[in-house]
């Protein structure tokens, strides 16, 4: 049986240190380019999702892995500060995951991810506490996510998976999801470019949510499709917008909201997040969303 940590939500996913350097241009092969000072920011899809949910007041734990190093400490500290329960974060002998992010003056990012400890999160680490909803993303090994979904189903915990980055989930895992969450590019990879997005349900999930950038999101259920419009905002940084959306959606589902109501709150949260710099620092509190 799961431990009772009094949780609404368990997030299974990555924690990375984002190492951001501004550069005039990307280095070519064999070339050395000098850049700005390095900003070290807490990131990773799992940690971002957990922080987004915690800011809204959800009781959330991250099931993930960090190394025994300074980046691991930084990530644990930022999770705790946001109110995320870190008792399910494993310490690994591998280095904490890192994303090397080069930002050029045109605003384009080039990103190299070194998964490190995230790759070490194994099926044996999946020891789920009791919760209402489990939400996973794919910067950790696919077998770990599939096992977590299977255990969640056994325990009566509602499984949500954001298939990002793209991975080939088994038919059994897909069939359990309620919902599967993808952006437009990921949807195209799953069902083909230009295909009717309702086709996502043919892959087996009980429901699907497709995020549509500035246009908001589409909620697809067996009995119908609902367009959920985003508030119009001036976007300054869309880093981590998808994670904000997923964290807010899962937090609302854990509170008992229906999927369409949850998506309405999630687009508001994600819209606020894109008006501010960074991923985790840009995520709003419940008060800010209401106001
Ligand atoms: P990802 O970040 O995974 O690529 P999207 O670009 O679809 O996914 O963004 C996720 C969510 O963030 C959207 O559903 C929307 O709610 C919000 N969002 C993204 N870009 C904007 C924007 N320019 N204006 C308002 N909301 C946005």
Automatic annotation (TrEMBL):
<comment type="function">
    <text>Catalyzes the phosphorylation of ribose at O-5 in a reaction requiring ATP and magnesium. The resulting D-ribose-5-phosphate can then be used either for sythesis of nucleotides, histidine, and tryptophan, or as a component of the pentose phosphate pathway.</text>
</comment>
<protein>
    <recommendedName>
        <fullName>Ribokinase</fullName>
        <ecNumber>2.7.1.15</ecNumber>
    </recommendedName>
</protein>
<feature type="binding site">
    <location>
        <position position="273"/>
    </location>
    <ligand>
        <name>K(+)</name>
    </ligand>
</feature>
<comment type="pathway">
    <text>Carbohydrate metabolism; D-ribose degradation; D-ribose 5-phosphate from beta-D-ribopyranose: step 2/2.</text>
</comment>
<dbReference type="InterPro" id="IPR011877">
    <property type="entry name" value="Ribokinase"/>
</dbReference>
<keyword id="KW-0119">Carbohydrate metabolism</keyword>
<dbReference type="InterPro" id="IPR002173">
    <property type="entry name" value="Carboh/pur_kinase_PfkB_CS"/>
</dbReference>
<feature type="domain" description="Carbohydrate kinase PfkB">
    <location>
        <begin position="9"/>
        <end position="285"/>
    </location>
</feature>
<feature type="active site" description="Proton acceptor">
    <location>
        <position position="243"/>
    </location>
</feature>
<keyword id="KW-0808">Transferase</keyword>
<keyword id="KW-0547">Nucleotide-binding</keyword>
<feature type="binding site">
    <location>
        <position position="276"/>
    </location>
    <ligand>
        <name>K(+)</name>
    </ligand>
</feature>
<feature type="binding site">
    <location>
        <position position="243"/>
    </location>
    <ligand>
        <name>substrate</name>
    </ligand>
</feature>
<keyword id="KW-0460">Magnesium</keyword>
<feature type="binding site">
    <location>
        <position position="237"/>
    </location>
    <ligand>
        <name>K(+)</name>
    </ligand>
</feature>
<feature type="binding site">
    <location>
        <position position="239"/>
    </location>
    <ligand>
        <name>K(+)</name>
    </ligand>
</feature>
<feature type="binding site">
    <location>
        <begin position="44"/>
        <end position="48"/>
    </location>
    <ligand>
        <name>substrate</name>
    </ligand>
</feature>
<keyword id="KW-0630">Potassium</keyword>
<feature type="binding site">
    <location>
        <begin position="242"/>
        <end position="243"/>
    </location>
    <ligand>
        <name>ATP</name>
    </ligand>
</feature>
<keyword id="KW-0963">Cytoplasm</keyword>
<feature type="binding site">
    <location>
        <begin position="16"/>
        <end position="18"/>
    </location>
    <ligand>
        <name>substrate</name>
    </ligand>
</feature>
<dbReference type="InterPro" id="IPR029056">
    <property type="entry name" value="Ribokinase-like"/>
</dbReference>
<dbReference type="Pfam" id="PF00294">
    <property type="entry name" value="PfkB"/>
</dbReference>
<keyword id="KW-0418">Kinase</keyword>
<feature type="binding site">
    <location>
        <begin position="211"/>
        <end position="216"/>
    </location>
    <ligand>
        <name>ATP</name>
    </ligand>
</feature>
<dbReference type="InterPro" id="IPR002139">
    <property type="entry name" value="Ribo/fructo_kinase"/>
</dbReference>
<feature type="binding site">
    <location>
        <position position="183"/>
    </location>
    <ligand>
        <name>ATP</name>
    </ligand>
</feature>
<keyword id="KW-0067">ATP-binding</keyword>
<comment type="similarity">
    <text>Belongs to the carbohydrate kinase pfkB family.</text>
</comment>
<feature type="binding site">
    <location>
        <position position="139"/>
    </location>
    <ligand>
        <name>substrate</name>
    </ligand>
</feature>
<dbReference type="InterPro" id="IPR011611">
    <property type="entry name" value="PfkB_dom"/>
</dbReference>
<comment type="similarity">
    <text>Belongs to the carbohydrate kinase PfkB family. Ribokinase subfamily.</text>
</comment>
<keyword id="KW-0479">Metal-binding</keyword>
<feature type="binding site">
    <location>
        <position position="278"/>
    </location>
    <ligand>
        <name>K(+)</name>
    </ligand>
</feature>
<comment type="subunit">
    <text>Homodimer.</text>
</comment>
<feature type="binding site">
    <location>
        <position position="282"/>
    </location>
    <ligand>
        <name>K(+)</name>
    </ligand>
</feature>
């Amino acid at each position: 049986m799961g431990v009772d940590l009094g949780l609404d939500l368990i997030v299974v996913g990555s924690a990375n240190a984002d190492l951001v350097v501004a550069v005039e241009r990307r280095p070519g092969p064999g070339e050395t380019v000098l850049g700005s000072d390095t900003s070290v920011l807490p990131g990773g899809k799992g940690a971002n999702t957990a922080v987004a949910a915690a800011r809204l007041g959800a009781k959330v734990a991250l099931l993930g892995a960090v190394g025994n190093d300074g980046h691991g400490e930084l990530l644990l500290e930022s999770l705790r500060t946001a109110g995320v329960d870190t008792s399910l974060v494993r310490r690994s002998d591998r280095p904490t995951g890192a994303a090397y992010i080069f930002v050029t003056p045109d605003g384009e990012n080039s990103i190299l991810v070194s998964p490190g400890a995230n790759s070490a999160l194994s099926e044996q680490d999946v020891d789920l506490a009791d919760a209402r909803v489990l939400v996973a993303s794919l910067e950790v090994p696919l077998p770990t996510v599939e096992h977590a979904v299977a255990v969640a189903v056994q325990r009566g915990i509602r499984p949500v998976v954001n298939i990002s980055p793209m991975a080939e989930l088994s038919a059994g895992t897909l069939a359990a999801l309620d919902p599967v969450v993808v952006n437009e590019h990921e949807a195209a990879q799953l069902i083909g470019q230009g295909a009717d997005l309702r086709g996502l349900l043919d892959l087996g999930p009980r429901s699907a949510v497709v995020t549509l950038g500035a246009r908001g999101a589409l909620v697809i259920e067996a009995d119908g499709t609902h367009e959920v419009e985003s508030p119009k905002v001036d976007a300054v940084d869309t880093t981590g917008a998808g994670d904000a959306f997923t964290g807010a959606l899962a937090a609302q589902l854990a509170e008992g909201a229906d999927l369409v109501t949850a998506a309405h709150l999630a687009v508001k949260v994600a819209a606020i997040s894109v008006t501010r710099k960074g991923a985790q620092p840009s995520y709003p509190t419940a008060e800010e969303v209401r106001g």
